[in-house]
Write a structure and sequence with these properties.
CATH superfamily of the largest domain: Formyl transferase, N-terminal domain
Number of helices: 7
Structural class: alpha/beta
Low-confidence stretches: none
Strand content: 25-35%
Mean pLDDT: 93
Distance between the termini: 50 Å
Strand order of the largest sheet: 2-1-3-4-5-6
CATH architecture of the largest domain: 3-Layer(aba) Sandwich
Shape: elongated
CATH topology of the largest domain: Rossmann fold
Largest sheet: 6 strands, mixed
Length: 220
């Protein structure tokens, strides 16, 4: 077991995140854990941490620069999207664009979201049959595989690789997703179908129609 100290930041009650956490806990002797959900304050145990590596896997927080500086060796994030799709709700924008390929990315963290040097990328095909749900599920599976490969490099070699990849656009935000979900009466049928396909995810905020200031959510 490595004596390297790690801060692990992740998503609460997610099976992929739990698998990643178990791998880290089994292979590093000193691990501080913080999991949470959107809107929760940054954890105090994470804010007070200092050590070797920060590992962010599906974390719901933007990590303060003061915390990033407390990692002596590196801070890495596992992003559920390829370099073409930094930011929030990447799968939605890939479906909307009609992308033929998608992927997952590991990158070094900077104060800005999805802006650091890219360490590794795994790409895979997107099919005409894909929905946001199916692409989301497959993305999380690939992200966990990328996590195992990358953390194994840390364990075996105490180093991270680099690839000749660059982020391709400005990171999308929650506001961008809300705009993508918006349907107005002047849109043609093709545009409406694209937006519904790209943003319909049961259990999450749904596509909506705006008519003279009134908002109606699509239920099915």
């Amino acid at each position: 077991m490595s004596e390297v100290s790690v801060l692990f930041l992740g998503k609460r009650n997610d099976p992929h995140c739990q698998a990643a956490l178990e791998f880290v806990s089994a292979n590093f002797e000193k691990v501080v854990i913080a999991t949470g959900d959107w809107g929760e304050p940054f954890p105090e145990n994470a804010r007070a941490w200092a050590g070797d590596y920060i590992i962010s896997f599906l974390s719901r927080w933007i990590i303060p620069d003061t915390v990033l500086k407390q990692a002596r060796k590196a801070s890495i994030n596992f992003h559920p999207g390829s370099p073409e799709y930094p930011g929030f709700a990447s799968t939605c924008f890939a479906i909307y664009d009609g992308a033929s390929a998608f992927g997952v990315t590991c990158h070094r963290m900077e104060p800005a979201v999805d802006a650091g040097q890219i360490v590794a990328v795994r790409r895979f095909s997107v099919y005409d049959s894909d929905t946001v749900v199916s692409l989301h599920q497959r993305t999380y599976t690939y992200l966990l595989a990328l996590f195992y490969d990358t953390v194994a490099e840390l364990l075996d070699h105490q180093s991270l690789g680099e690839v000749q990849e660059q982020w391709r656009r400005k990171p999308t935000t929650r506001k961008d997703l809300l705009e993508l979900q918006r349907i107005t009466p002047d849109m043609n049928l093709g545009e409406i179908q694209k937006r519904v396909r790209a943003t319909y995810f049961p259990g999450q905020p749904l596509p909506y129609i705006e008519v003279e200031g009134l908002r109606f959510e699509l239920k099915s």
